[in-house]
């Protein structure tokens, strides 16, 4: 199955926030299929924006459940307070990483960020036929923006050559507005990640 299909299909999987042996039969099966039998490869996520103190408990639970670390090779980050999240900020954002993220995602963590209105950028490495990808979500977006990127430098985003050719053809035939529109669709404006704060 292509990478995009695998990653997009995970949004329909039930959230399971407990060990498999404490779950009902159906949920335990879901846990085994997604959490235990999944492909795993490196990914990182940066989280920013304000969060109400009353919502911090939800975020803490998903950060703990993700088993992500504050830096590569470190033990998983298990914060128990709002202060622990604030103290863990790096360059203003909460930066987490995992050498063995399920399908290169932080599924539940990304979901709770969207529910709470927290901005995030997530990068997944290329692995065994899957392209590296950079995923951005901001509160003004209907859906996360998924783009293919360089495996060595996530700031380098790749675009479809055929679409560039289409834009050039539009320029050549005097359809400047169409050409500019096509190019802008390849280079959407993504706002900078705001600072992570408890409000």
Primary descriptors:
disordered N terminus, 6 strands, globular, 7 helices, single chain, 199 residues, 20% strand, alpha+beta
Describe the structure.
This protein folds into two domains: 1-10 and 40-157, no CATH class; 159-188. The longest helix has 12 residues, at 25-36. The N and C termini lie far apart (42 Å). It has helices spanning 3-9, 25-36, 56-66, 82-87, 107-116, 161-172, 176-186, and strands at 40-51, 94-102, 119-124, 133-137, 145-148, 196-198. The radius of gyration is 19 Å and the shape is globular. Strand 4 (133-137) and strand 5 (145-148) form a beta hairpin. By secondary structure, the chain is of the alpha+beta class. Residues 1-34 have low confidence and may be disordered. It contains seven helices and six strands.
Summarize, please.
With 199 residues, this protein is an alpha+beta fold. The chain starts with a helix and ends with a strand.
Main sheet properties: 6 strands, mixed
User: Per DSSP, what share of the residues sits in E-state strands of 2 or more residues?
Assistant: 15-25%
> How many domain regions?
2
Q: On the 0-100 scale, what is the average pLDDT?
A: 81
Structural class call reads alpha+beta
The secondary-structure element order is HHEHHEHEEEHHE
CA(first)-CA(last) distance: 42 Å
Annotate the secondary structure layout.
Blueprint: H1 3-9, H2 25-36, E1 40-51, H3 56-66, H4 82-87, E2 94-102, H5 107-116, E3 119-124, E4 133-137, E5 145-148, H6 161-172, H7 176-186, E6 196-198
Helix pairs in contact: 3-5, 6-7
């Amino acid at each position: 199955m292509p990478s995009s299909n695998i990653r997009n299909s995970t949004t329909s999987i039930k959230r399971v926030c407990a060990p498999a042996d404490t779950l009902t039969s159906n949920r335990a099966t879901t846990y085994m299929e997604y959490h235990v039998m999944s492909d795993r490869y490196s990914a990182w996520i940066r989280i920013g924006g304000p969060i109400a103190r009353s919502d911090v408990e939800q975020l803490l639970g998903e950060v703990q459940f993700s088993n992500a670390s504050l830096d590569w090779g470190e033990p998983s980050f298990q914060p128990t307070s709002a202060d622990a999240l604030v103290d863990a900020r790096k360059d203003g954002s909460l930066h987490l990483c995992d050498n063995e993220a399920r399908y290169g995602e932080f599924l539940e963590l990304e979901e709770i960020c969207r529910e709470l209105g927290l901005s995030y950028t997530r990068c997944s490495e290329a692995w065994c036929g899957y392209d590296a990808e950079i995923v951005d979500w901001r509160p003004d977006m209907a859906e996360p923006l998924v783009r293919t990127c360089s495996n060595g430098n996530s700031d380098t985003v790749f675009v479809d050559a055929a679409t560039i050719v289409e834009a050039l053809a539009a320029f050549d035939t005097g359809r400047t507005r169409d050409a500019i529109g096509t190019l802008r669709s390849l280079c959407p404006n993504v706002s900078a990640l705001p600072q992570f704060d408890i409000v």
